[in-house]
Amino acid sequence: MICIAAPGQGSQAPGFLEPWLEIPIFKDSIEQSAKACELDLIQFGTVADAETIRDTKIAQPLIVAAGIASFEVLKDKFGDSLKVSGTAGHSVGEVTAAYVSGIFDSQTALKFVRRRGIEMADAAALSPSSMAAVVGGESDQVLAHLDSAGLYAANYNGAGQVVAAGSKEAIASLVASPPAGSRVVALQVAGAFHTSFMEPARPALKQFATGLSVKDPAISIWSNSNGQLVESGSAF
Length: 236
Fold this sequence. Notes:
The protein is an alpha/beta fold. It has helices spanning 24-37, 41-46, 50-54, 56-78, 93-101, 106-125, 139-148, 168-176, 202-209; strands at residues 2-6, 84-89, 129-136, 152-158, 161-167, 182-186, 220-222. The protein has two domains: 2-124 and 199-222, Malonyl-Coenzyme A Acyl Carrier Protein, domain 2, CATH 3.40.366.10; 128-191, Alpha-Beta Plaits. It is 44% helix and 17% strand. The protein has a four-stranded antiparallel sheet with strand order 4-5-3-6. The protein has a three-stranded parallel sheet with strand order 1-2-7, with helices on one face.
């Protein structure tokens, strides 16, 4: 069984596209994505520094475009022998997964993620916020520590890892004083995603999404919100 898992924000790094651009299909896909979202993705993925590509407006389209291009390379290499049973994405990676599943075509995915990045960046600008991964520690103690610090447990990445989100000051304090038995790694993101800090982005993005063309998934896709299968394009 082959499942495609697509990464989210924070997975980008300076120059990460450069070696892949030597593959013609990958480069062509990135160029098409750049046109769709009206960003110079090749520049951002090769010569831009870490701070530039941490910007949500840049990071989200860049990550999704890279994921789409990677899937195009897989399809070209393996052809009909590539049998994907399912897909899922972490955070913005769910947009990549929607492409893999057939809910979005590539143009729709990039237009949507471009708008998503803009709205979330605008929301983040209203109140400085960030995220950090808490690795290790006893689960109940970690969650109690976050609650007492005024932080959200925004993501449960797996056994022994919770992503905290909240104000920049609270995240900085968490990094400096981790819960007992844990270590804390600040994430390369520009906002407290998956929390009420992003609520201002919801109305405009919801309105934008109503105008998108979607299809029902041809490949199983699991929601990163509740872990359930997405039954239709409209439900997504």
